Amino acid sequence: MGKNYEVSRHDMVPEHEVIPGEKVEELLETYEIDVRQLPKILVNDPVAKEMETEPGDVLRVVRKSPTAGVAVSYRLVIER
Amino acid sequence: MAEPKQIGSIQFGLLSPKEIRKLAVTKIITPDTYDDDGYPIDLGLMDPKLGVIDPGLECKTCGGKPGECPGHFGKIELAAPVIHAGFARLIRKIMRATCRECGELSLTEEEKEGYREEIEKLKSLQQPIDDVRRDAFKEARKGSTCPSCGSDMSDVKFDRPTGYYVNDQKLMPTEVRDWLAKVPDEDLLVIGMNPEMARPEWMVLDVLPVPPVTMRPSITLETGQRSEDDLTHKLVDILRVNQRFQENQEAGAPQLIIEDLWELLQYHVVTFFDNHVSGIPPARHRSGRPLRTMAQRLKGKEGRFRSNLSGKRVNFSARTVISPDPNISVNEVGVPETIAKELTVTMHLTERNLEIARDTVLRGPDSHPGANYVRRADGRKQRISDKNREELAEKLEVGWQVDRHLKDGDVVLFNRQPSLHRMSIMAHEVRVLPYKTLRLNLCVCPPYNADFDGDEMNLHVPQTEEARAEAEVLMKVQNQMLSPRFGGPIIGGIHDHISGAFLLTERGSRFDRDDATELLRRAGIFELPEPEGQEDGQPYWTGGGLFSQLLPEDMDLRYTDSSGEPVIIEGGELVEGRMDDRAFGAFSGEILDALLKEYGVREARRFLDNATRVAIHAITKLGFSFGLSDEDLPDEAGTQIADVMTSADEKVENLIETYELGELDAIPGRSLEETLEMRIMQELGEARDQAGSIAEKFLGEDNSGVIMAVSGARGSMLNLTQMAASVGQQSVRGERITRGYRERTLPHFERGDLGTAAKGFVQSSYKDGLTPTEFFFHAMGGREGLVDTAVRTAQSGYMQRRLINALQDLNVKEDGTVRDTRDTIVQMIYGDDGIDPSKSDYGEAVDVERIAERVTGRSP
Ligand SMILES: [Mg+2]
Ligand SMILES: [Zn+2]
Ligand SMILES: [Zn+2]
User: Fold this and answer.
1) Number of other CB atoms surrounding residue B421 within 10 Å
2) Is the distance from CB of B60 to CB of B53 less than 8 angstroms?
3) Is B137 left (phi over 0), alpha (psi -120 to 50) or beta?
4) Which pLDDT band holds residue B606 (cuts at 50, 70, 90)?
5) CB atoms within 10 A of CB B255
6) Which helix H or strand E contains A79, and what residues bound it?
7) CA B460 vs CA B360, B397, B418, B637: distances in Å
8) B829 at interface of A, judged by CB pairs closer than 8 A
9) Cα–Cα distances in Å, from B401 out to A67, B373, B376, B396, B462?
10) Residue-wise pLDDT tens digits, B269-282
């Protein structure tokens, strides 16, 4: 595998983005949840690794959806 | 009654010998149960301290009567400890990871601390610790010397179910226990055990808990003989061996005998817990039947969990054979009077229903809308009988309750297994009918997947106002007409409903005044529309015109029917086209779909009830039948089909010749052989299609079979072709038949014959009958189909179980998120778009075109 291979460039990998802390607070407030109630992603997930995320970060995932066109989801980065 | 309490937490652990002894209300010594007078023997297996099952006796521990006393545990002090086979593997794992001398886990202090911290963290996160435990065991097993005392670590060999060997020396249970007892508490934390709740030496039993008699009741046979529960039999075995062991030990018997008895005691204790452990023969009853011990009571489909806890038998339910009734509504279910008199609904008496209740009670339990029980205000219950019904009716007061018979209009749940989707249980309104079957409208056959070849269905009567309201709003058939799978109708006309409507709305169908009146009467319409025209001075009505009377007056709709012809409805009139399965058939009805979405479920249901009744009347009036002679083809057709077959045969022969000469051109990406096969299959497929069109031509449009196929009522043109013209190629695994004997399928053919007949082409039709070789190939193809279905149902059943187990506790919250029981978000919005497919238009939230059409009044 070449050095410049990036999973995020693959067609099947949806758009991931780390969202800033204040946005996380906002998100948690809208859903009235604790950060641990978000869906999770492992730090060693290829995408999370590539983005150099840390446990505790929250990723915004934008997927193409056959039903909704675009579906936005959030995932909390955790250690294994 | 005691206040209900909330469960704070559940802690699983092992029973320590101390706890077992504390739990026990008596020790059990004698392997006997009852004395000659039939009284339970003290210190025996039926000791009255363990609880009571015989009526009239009292529990010696709690004083309760049978049914009140929950039963109490006893204990058997084992003469020598034995391994609990359920933990045999864990014992082996621990012994392999610890030192026999000092009992410490074979890890360095740093390593231990690391694992302990990791487990602590995972537990606080409520994450599973299995991976860490596995790592700890694996690491600890690696070293060859003990890190703390330096002694050699030797491997522990394990012999199922309970044998342990170190250096080929058998370890006695006492030795195992002593080893496990040496493992320090801190080291147990490393391997994920909580020493407070589960010390490893507790996995070796010194004392055996004896289950209360209430969970192993004996039954008295008609002969007066007592028959004991399997568990009691097993306990008798244990006690006998235990006694013998003790006697031999005290008498100083040779080690060999002691070891044999020890082994035997171990066997009985193992089979007491689980009689299907691999490695030992199951303990059997005198009759040869394997005993049903602890594990067997819990495990599997017939076990406590799957058969008594996940699924229970219930009251207020009925089950019997079903049969069709085209005259009741799809919303209704026909209930036999005998069942209606058995199933009850509770009436809570108020001033407003007191008189009604009085009448009901007065009718008593035997005449139909009567009642079976009254419950006074103080809760006392009294059965209504022929003798006391008048007296009870007189006494009725506000505040009492009456269990009255099921009657017309009651809401009940109706169900057919396998309950694979939510439409397998729907709410119906009761119609009490004579005879002994449950009756349903044919339109609900598709969602239940029911037919009447002996199918049985279940009925449940909701017992509270809330349950009834919920059933009516959420589960009523008319509210289930749109499928949550694809957002279209799944309930609709079938078979003769479709044929009938098809014949009724045929172009040029005419009805006189009498017939038209009778037809519309089925839909509850008692006034005829204006006649379509006059013929011989008599007014006439067209089928289409009559059918239009069932449609809402302002309905506009266009769609294409299943033959591709346009159907146009304008202002509630069927202007053009003919009714077929695309009109109001199950899974495809366009009119039904439009009615459901634009006029509401009630209107749609009413239309369906009426349309099907009218269609059934039409088909009965016009006459419709199909028999062997409807597959007859004239000689001319026979010759034409024979010609097609001969020419197909020739073409195939030519292909084979070209192939053998090596002149066949391979299709790109295929070998020569594959090319040949494909070309032959194509040729034979065409031959059958040609035979089919010949048959179709000669059968004509008036043929009943053709009508059913074209209207989508039942069957296809392919079915007709196979019956009248030619069955066609049989296949196994998508290829022509190839297997059988060496280089040929049957000994009737030359080796290497690639011709049509030798490879499973069935030239005959079903009506003509198959030749013996054709019959054989047909059986081969048919068998594959059967096997596929059997395998598929088994696999999909298992998949269904696992999917349901995984998904059943998810629910959609008010904010649109899908969450599990811990309130963790699974989906941010249900299905990414927040749309309930059963409220959608074939999966789309809205049908913009249709709305535009209705607003502008123009079709796009
Ligand atoms: Mg059946
Ligand atoms: Zn008791
Ligand atoms: Zn040691």
Assistant:
1) 15
2) no
3) alpha
4) very high
5) 8
6) none
7) 22, 29, 16, 56
8) yes
9) 52, 8, 6, 9, 16
10) 999 999 998 888 99
> In terms of residues, how long is chain B?
860
Report d(CA B673, CA B659) in Å as an integer: 8
User: What number is the average pLDDT over the span B184-190?
Assistant: 90
Confidence of residue B674 (pLDDT cuts 50, 70, 90): confident
What type of residue is A61? V
Cβ of B125 under 8 Å from any chain A Cβ?
yes
Q: End-to-end CA distance of chain A, in Å?
A: 25
pLDDT digits 0-9 by tens, B631-667: 888 889 889 988 998 998 898 888 888 888 888 888 8
Average of pLDDT values for B573-584? 90
Ligand nearest to the CA of B104: 3
| Ion ligand 2: residue ranges with CB closer than 5 A | B 51, 59, 61-62, 64, 69
Please, which residues have CB within 8 angstroms of residue B194's CB and are 6 or more apart in sequence? B13, B188
Res. A3: pLDDT tops 70: no
CATH entry, A7-78, from 3.20.20.105, 3.90.940.20, 3.40.50.720, 2.60.40.10: 3.90.940.20
Q: Which two tokens stand for residue B649?
A: 């045969």
Which of B485, B828, B836, B846 is the mutation pick for testing A, counting most A CBs within 10 A? B828
Give the model's confidence band at B102: pLDDT under 50 very low, under 70 low, under 90 confident, else very high. Answer: confident
Say if residues B496 and B617 touch (Cβ distance below 8 Å).
Answer: no
Q: Which residues of B touch A30 (CB under 8 A)?
A: 815
Give DSSP secondary structure letters for B818-834.
Answer: EE-TT--EEESSGGGT-
> B817 in contact with A at a CB cutoff of 8 Å?
yes
Q: What is the DSSP string of B681-730?
A: HHHHHHHHHHHHHHHHHHH-TT-HHHHHHHHTSS--HHHHHHHHT--EE-
- pTM to 2 decimals? 0.77
Residue of B nearest to A30 (CA): B815
From ligand 3's centre to the CA of B203, what distance in Å?
21
Q: Read off the amino acid at residue B316.
A: F
Q: What is the DSSP string of B621-644?
A: HH-----GGGG---HHHHHHHHHH
Please tell me the distance between residue B72's alpha carbon and the centre of ligand 2 in angstroms.
Answer: 6
Q: Any idea which residue has 């060496």 for tokens?
A: B742
What does pLDDT average to over chain B?
A: 90
Instruction: Count how many pairs of residues, chain A against chain B, have C-beta atoms within 8 Å.
Output: 41
